[in-house]
Amino acid sequence: MQYDKNISPLKNQACASCHMPYTAFSGPIPSVNLTMIAYPGTVHFRAGKRQAQRYTYAPFFPVLQYNETQGLFFGGNFWDSRATGYLLRNPDAHQSQGPPVDTQEMGFPDTACITFRLSRAVYRPLFELVWGRGAFDIAFPPDTEQICATPGGAAVFHGDTTPVNLSPVDRTRSNDVYDRWAQSLDAYEQSVQVSAFSSKFDAFLAGNYTMTGPERAGYNLFRGKANCNSCHLDGRGTALTPGQSDNSKAAQVNPLFTCFGSANEGLPLNPRNAFYYQTTPDPYGFTPNPLGFGYRDLGLGTFLRSGFGTWASPNITWRQFAPLNDGMMQVSSARNVAMTPPRCPTTEAPGPYFQKQFFHNGYIKSLKQLVHFYNTRDKQGFAYNVTSGHCPDGTIEKVNCWPRPEVPNNIDMTTGDLGLTDQEENQIVAFLQTLTDGFTRPYPNRATFTGTCMSGGSASTQGNEFLIPTPPLPPCAPEVCDLPPRPSPSPIP
Ligand code: HEC
Ligand code: HEC
């Protein structure tokens, strides 16, 4: 099902179009990662707004919960945690019910279309074997194929999200099939074919791998001076002081390198994101982003308000917490952040390398830059009150100039001025590379990339030739920033 292009109106897009094994099932196309950030949907002139995340370890996130004592949210899937899992009790299964009806992704106009196309799939017998023979006992109206071949959001639907006319009983059956479909995808994503626990680090924990000097040094920094494991939990204690050696056994031997929480790391607005430019109706009469550059990505905050471009929050009592969560994105598992196809063995210039993108808006293009960002974002003389593409003469963006955050509210101050040397940054990169699955046994289907690798340049400035000046920003649109309770401080610049 992950590879089935029939699960899209124009039969041209599968989950795999945006999630391939060789990137640990994240964005597979180097040129998209380098430029437009968001991946094109079934209607190729439409695109979403964030980077395509990795599948790996997403099934291990718990149902979204508000922890009253800490005042923090934990769990869910997606950058803004909107796949809460509240009905299926499984955020990852809930997640997979998004793309098929997301107007900028696979884009069906009705969830019944997934059931309909499944009922005609070659693997239908297999589905029935697992989920029951009567699964597709549904009377689909004669116009179903025609409806399902029209992308969602099209003017002909007048906003109707259930244009396939089913009886209440058949609608319930169709919903059941959609739930089973979601659970099947979750089962695959949780299996050893995807979430493999087969990295160097796993071998190290099992006592079967000795880290190299730089890897070991990077690991010590990761859970010491650089404080990374306060959010990317590694199952061990933290903050060794100089001269101290850690004799503790790992308290958790399958650590996921996330705390399931969220934080605002203060990424600058990335004007490359295709989302900003989709401001006029497409041939179907649909406008993905009427707000243009008035859009601000408030992440979890907007979800808690059930605001623009996210899903409805299932819990109205959470809404009051929105201002404390504006700008927050989910703490990704650091696992597999460095996975690339074997023929382009690294993410880092000079390579030969495979161009990935990092963080929710793809602003960062190499792991060196990622660590440098955590290290120097707030460092004296590095932080400038400019937007991307406008760093002052004599500075180099991402090297010694960081543009201001898109959302200045609730910025995490754990990191930002870590005092790491250049060599220490590289050691952390070396450690991050030990988290790539496929060391203890081959990672399935990893060698399927047929494009060319890139080479040359330096990891510090990788992708900088594609920076463009951010246009003068209009104020944050009322649809985003005036929804109660309003961001605080307000307005978002
Ligand atoms: C058009 C590209 C596209 C398609 C097609 C697509 N995705 Fe995604 N996927 C994304 C993007 C972008 C995100 C992050 C979106 C966000 O957080 O707002 C994402 C996020 C995810 C995540 C979340 C991981 C996490 O850590 O929270 C999973 C799992 C996932 N997708 C699975 C799927 C499955 C299964 C399908 C097919 C049913 C699919 N995707 C189809 C682009 C796509
Ligand atoms: C306060 C919590 C916190 C700390 C501390 C932290 N991170 Fe993160 N990390 C996050 C969040 C939140 C994200 C997602 C941010 C976004 O995309 O806007 C993230 C994302 C990542 C990713 C995945 C990026 C991607 O595109 O998939 C890596 C790798 C990472 N961090 C490494 C580190 C390293 C290395 C350190 C220490 C130098 C560190 N983090 C410290 C919260 C934290």
Produce the secondary structure layout.
Blueprint: H1 30-34, E1 65-67, E2 72-74, H2 91-96, H3 112-119, H4 124-131, H5 144-148, H6 168-190, H7 200-205, H8 213-222, E3 262-263, H9 300-304, H10 322-325, E4 329-330, H11 367-376, H12 422-432, H13 478-481
Antiparallel strand pairs: 1-2, 3-4
Helix pairs in contact: 3-6, 8-12, 11-12
The structure holds heme C (2 copies).
What's this entry about, in short?
The chain has 493 residues and is mainly alpha-helical.
Can you offer a commentary on this structure?
By secondary structure, the chain is an all-alpha fold. The chain is built from 13 helices and four strands. It has helices at 30-34, 91-96, 112-119, 124-131, 144-148, 168-190, 200-205, 213-222, 300-304, 322-325, 367-376, 422-432, 478-481, and strands at residues 65-67, 72-74, 262-263, 329-330. A two-stranded antiparallel ribbon has the order 1-2. A two-stranded antiparallel ribbon has the order 3-4. A hairpin with a 4-residue loop joins strand 1 and strand 2 (72-74). Helix 11 packs across helix 12. The longest helix is centred in the middle third of the chain and has 23 residues, at 168-190. It is globular. It starts with 29 loop residues before the first helix and ends in a 12-residue tail after the last helix. The model has no long low-confidence stretch (mean pLDDT 96). The structure holds heme C (2 copies). One heme C binds at residues 226-228, 230-232, 262-263, 265, 267, 329, 331-332, 334, 337, 358-360, 370-371, 374, 412, 414-415, 428, 432.
